[in-house]
Amino acid sequence: MTEYKNLIGGEWVAGTSSVDNINPSDTGDIIGRATHASAQQVADAVSAARQALPKWSTGTAQLRSDILSTVANELLARKEELGELLAREEGKTRAEAIGEVGRAANIFRFFASEVLRMRGEKLASVRPGIDVEITRDPVGVIGVITPWNFPIAIPAWKIAPALAFGNAVVFKPSELTPGTAWALADILHRAGVPAGVFNLVHGAGAVVGDAILSGVDAITFTGSVKTGRHIVQRANERMIRVQAEMGGKNPLIVLDDADFDIAVNCAVDGSFFQTGQRCTASSRLIVTEGIHDRFVAAVAERLGKIVIDHALKAGTQVGPVVDQRQLDQDLRYIDIGISEGARAVVKGELLRRDTPGHYLSPTLFTDTSNQMRINREEVFGPVAAVIRAKNYEEALSIANDTPFGLSAGICTTSQKHARHFQANAEAGLTMLNLATAGLDYHVPFGGRKGSSYGPREQGTYAIEFYTIVKTSYLSV
Q1: Total of domains in the chain
Q2: Which DSSP symbol is given to 206?
Q3: Is the pTM of this model over 0.90?
Q4: Which domain holds residue 324?
């Protein structure tokens, strides 16, 4: 059995306790065992990062670029092997997992180039005989805390820019996906990242996460609203930089004039694929009256045809829920929806397959209002609710009536409504005739309201979080 150790100061170190890594497609399959770090070991990792930082941050851009390129090349060369590991421990299908590894490789490749595109400015001073230069410095030691649903893509889009711009990293992955995190750490280690510049610590947030927060110069987090708010509060108390992505309750508006097949495809893909375990999933389907009944019937028919099975089995379209805790949450929200008066056109049921796993069929609610808990709170599973709207104006009002603001989509052939929606949707991402889930790796990502806090992630905008602007005056 593979033991996933912690990487601290360039050495692989066993933790003080261990937890089995269980396959959600086959709960009898123990993939490996993660050794969880103690608070003191996390402090050691932070200390190692701080000691390694000066040499790394002042080293050549070419060295950092070469290392990130090496990481990208190995990820691409091993994408099928690593994708199988990811699918096995997280539960998304093999094809989706391989695609995620490829995306991580492209992220590292992108930032390998960004290293060499670091720009500054030289401005004339208003005073004679003085030059002004504007440059960027690394922030310092970055704490990286990531979730289980994209266990290599999300770490990549945090770790790659952190290293590219000269920072050191202490990385805590989810306890549910330690194998993929360990594999990425091993690749970084062998690619030549100097000892201490990158550190991996496994463990629960209450121990490892809090210990990271106590010592780093900045923290970047993706996960639940509750944990994100705690991290933001702690970071603000220490007056350190913080970036938090905390989920959504994303609307997909379907207007009467929509291309019907495109609208159904957008709803089914965005709401239910990857088991609905995406922060950009379409959990609120806001449908105008003229198309409502036909649309509900078509989506329900499609859901009955989705193949739900072992993540590595050929032909599987949707894998299992990630673990028992998440499965229990999904089932609880299905019961809440029914108790609130929603009608389950398709009701999620536990499924039996050849191997014991957390298999759950989709749920589609109708006759719902935007004030129901199932339309206010993030379920994070294969559960979506249809809300009837009279017209575009009411649909937009419902879409924006949420404490979240990550992704929002509309299906329409009207350029007037499409452009109005783009300008007025209260979300960080808008989609026209596309699923609300599905992102490029080279453009900014983030939301509004309760979905996000701090600067954007990904693309060239990542530099805003991982560097500090310095203005220098030179007497000439």
Answers
A1: 2
A2: I
A3: yes
A4: 250-432
